[in-house]
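Re: flavin-adenine dinucleotide structure - here you go.
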Amino acid sequence: MQIAFLLNGQTIRLTLDDPHVTTLNWLRDNGHVGSKEGCAEGDCGACTAVMAEVVDGQIQLSPVNTCIQLISRLNGCALITVEGLSQDSIHPIQQAVVDEHGSQCGYCTPGVVMALYYGLNAQPPQNREQACDLLAGNLCRCTGYQGLLRVAMDLPKIARDRLEPLVEALAALHAPTPEEHPTTLNQALALRAQWPDAQVVAGNTDVGLWVTKRHQRFERVLMLHRIPELQQIHLDNGQLVIGAMVTYTQALATLTQHWPSVDRYLKRIGSVQVRSAGTLGGNLANGSPIGDMPPMLIALQAQIELQSVRGTRHLPLEQFFIQYGVQDLADDELLVRIHVPMESRSLAMAKLSKRADQDISAVSLGLSARVENGCLLDPVIAFGGMAGTPKRARHLEQALNNCPLDRVDWQVLAQDFEPLSDARASAEYRMRAAQGMVKRACQQLLGQPIEVLV
Ligand SMILES: Cc1cc2nc3c(=O)[nH]c(=O)nc-3n(C[C@H](O)[C@H](O)[C@H](O)COP(=O)(O)OP(=O)(O)OC[C@H]3O[C@@H](n4cnc5c(N)ncnc54)[C@H](O)[C@@H]3O)c2cc1C
Ligand code: FES
Ligand code: FES
């Protein structure tokens, strides 16, 4: 595979024999050792760099965990690493980190600086909460975060970098078009039929870990990131239609506009780095019982659209998950869109995990219903983490329907699920926590007071 990209303004052209090379490994093997490896699984942020692409004629920036992003993803893009910030003199962000005593051993510092660089040039934080969110994907074991948060909150005082010249530089790059990077859905479906064994790659935030942690190797990859048809969100006939390649970051504004409670829930997924790459389609297609999107989307009664060269199928999302590790997806099919009905249903979500940020759920919940006369009508309740697949709580739905909360028998949840014990939570804890979560979600929808233990 031939690729070309800009690294700190310099053109790099590569012929890749091995599709598994990660961006971080390539950088470090080629002398660009500013970016560090801490975890090699997207958790610590030490490897963070900033990717720039041209979208609708404008530069769009993403913070990237280079440890899990394949180097071939950079084809046609620009990558800015910490070396690119201090070519002539120290960057104002680096000076601010020095002034705030934000670095000791310095191992995390290149990644922290690059997350701050992304914040400065994409969306400077306006308050402490946004500053915390910007840095939630970057761990520092030495310094404590107060100094770094002060730098983040002072970003609006620093002049943004001039990135406009990148538009022309990227156009002049004339990046190749590898076969593995189709640019239309039809091309992708033809390749999927031709290479059913190829590993489909969306944002690579799951697949990347199979490469770095399980040392899994694929005959071929089929990368979907260059297909505009899969990156669109639009309203169609009373439905919100979300392309499978829409990232969490891209989906956030639209989903929050329709269901305000989504904002907090989505920001509990990964970090800015993970949410900039990870896609909604990837979160469904991976079939994880603890993925955070299925409970929310099942509660919203979403349907998914699957396509192959043979045709198109639609099915309710809940039917996609057959059993642990088995989804209703043929070898030649791709998940192409998610259709969410825009009925006037209220939505509540909850996520229980050991940390607020950067943690996978022990239990997650989506609940939607119509609210009338102090009761919930036709509730749809879906849980993650309570079974081998994301699953609805049909008995509890019946018990809750049109029933005042003080008369609901929450114990019926035990008829819906027999949860497992694992490292995240015991079966008993999951069951009790799930009952509490769903009760609070109901109180939230009904506008009743909720006790908050903070
Ligand atoms: C540090 C970190 C934190 C994370 N935190 C969370 C979290 O809080 N909550 C959570 O739910 N997840 C979390 N994840 C997991 C991951 O980010 C999500 O599951 C993400 O949505 C996966 O999407 P992706 O685009 O990266 O998928 P990929 O890794 O590219 O693909 C995942 C799987 O889906 C398949 N696939 C992808 N798109 C399609 C398609 N269109 N058609 C058919 N098959 C397809 C791929 O072949 C692969 O099997 C985290 C991951 C990391 C590394
Ligand atoms: S090395 Fe930890 S996120 Fe990349
Ligand atoms: S300064 Fe040592 S890990 Fe952050």
